[in-house]
Amino acid sequence: MKALVVTKKHKLELQEIEKPTVVSGKVLIKVAYCGICGSDLPRYFDGGVHAFPQVLGHEFSGVVVEVGDKVTNVKKGDRVAVAPLVPCGNCENCQKGEPAMCAYYSFIGSREQGAMAEYVVVPEKNCVKVPDSLSLKEAALVEPLTVAIHGIERINIAAGAKVMVLGAGTIGLLTVLSLRAIGAGEIIVVDLNDKKLSVAKTIGADEGINPANQTLEEYFQEHSLPDAVIETAGSSITQKQSIEFVNKRGKIVYVGTSTKDVVLDPETFEKILRGELEVTGSWMSYSAPFPGYEWETGLRYMSTGKIDVKPLITGLYQLEDIALPFDKMVEPNSEAIKLLYAINEEK
C-alpha cells in the first residue's frame, strides 16, 4: 500500500509498504481523509519522532474493511472516525478511568503506524461510528474538535460568560465553535494572523484582536476583562497574558503546548493569588468510558449542524503531494487552517 513515511529529519517519502494485518480485537480501516495536526510539523521538520521510519497521521476517518477475532461493536462497511490514543488499560490511571493520564500509552501516528496511508489497523474500541448525515471529510476533524470540547469542559463556563481565546489556529477556531455551541456570551479571539481572525469572526467570534495593531493593554483599557481565557497558541507570551488579562475570580485553561520557558514576574504571578484565579491544564480529549463523551458529542454537534467545520477545511491534497501541505502550513501569514490528505475519497 502507499504511505507517507518520515525517514529522517525534514524527509518525507511516498513509499510502498506492507498492508497491515488484522489481529484479534483490531480492525482494518481504509483511510478516507487524514488531517495534518500542528504536532505533526515538528515530527517532519525537526525529525521529532520516537523512531524512524514513521508513518504520521492521527486525525482521520475511513471505512472498516476487515475485522479481527473478538470484534463485536463494529463491522465491515462501518464509517468511522478513530481516537488515536491507545491506553494500556492496566496502569493505575487507566484503572481510575483516566485514559489520557495513562503511563504506558501508545499513539497512532507517533508511536505506531499512522493514517497518512491507504490502510491502518486500529483497536476496535478506538472506532467511533460516523452518523450517516455527516461526511467522512468533516468527520476527519472530530479529533481536534474533541480537544477543543475537552478544553472548555475543564472549567465551568456559565451561559453568557465572556471568553477570550488566545490563538486562532485549528484548536482555537474549534474552541470558538464549541463555545458558541454551549451558549457562551461575547467571544474575543487574539492572533497575529488577520486572515484567521477574519475566519474566527465568520464562525462566531465577536471580536478579533491582532496585537501587532492593538495591544491587549490598549484594548482592555476600554473593554471589560473576560470571565475565562482559553490559551491555545502555546506561546510563552500568551501563556503569561492569560493571567494578566482575565477578570478577578476568572478561569484559565491552558491547551497549547509550551515550546519555550514561561517566565512570570512576581506581579503577574500574584494576580493568581489576589484574583483567586482558577488555573488548569487540558490534555488531549479522553474520558471514561473510552474514548469518552467528547467523541460522541463532537460527532453529534457536527451531524446536527450545531457546529460546522467546513469553513476550516482549507485544502485537500493527495499522498502524491508528499510534503507540499506541510510546507503550506508554515508559510508566513499562511491562510491554511486544516489541510487534509484525501486518500480514499468518499464519493
Automatic annotation (TrEMBL):
PROSITE patterns linked to this entry: ADH_ZINC
Family matches, as Pfam families: ADH_N, ADH_zinc_N
Organism field: Enterococcus florum
Listed Gene3D superfamilies: Medium-chain alcohol dehydrogenases, catalytic domain (3.90.180.10), NAD(P)-binding Rossmann-like Domain (3.40.50.720)
The organism's place on the tree of life at top rank: Bacteria
TM region(s), chain numbering: none
Name assigned to this protein: Galactitol-1-phosphate 5-dehydrogenase
CDD domains registered for this protein in UniProt: sugar_DH (cd08236)
GO molecular function: oxidoreductase activity; zinc ion binding
Record-annotated Enoyl reductase (ER) domain positions: 9-313
Names of the cofactor(s): Zn(2+)
InterPro entries on file: ADH-like_C, ADH-like_N, ADH_Zn_CS, ER, GroES-like_sf, NAD(P)-bd_dom_sf, Zn_alcohol_dh
Family: Belongs to the zinc-containing alcohol dehydrogenase family.
Oxidoreductase recorded as keyword: yes
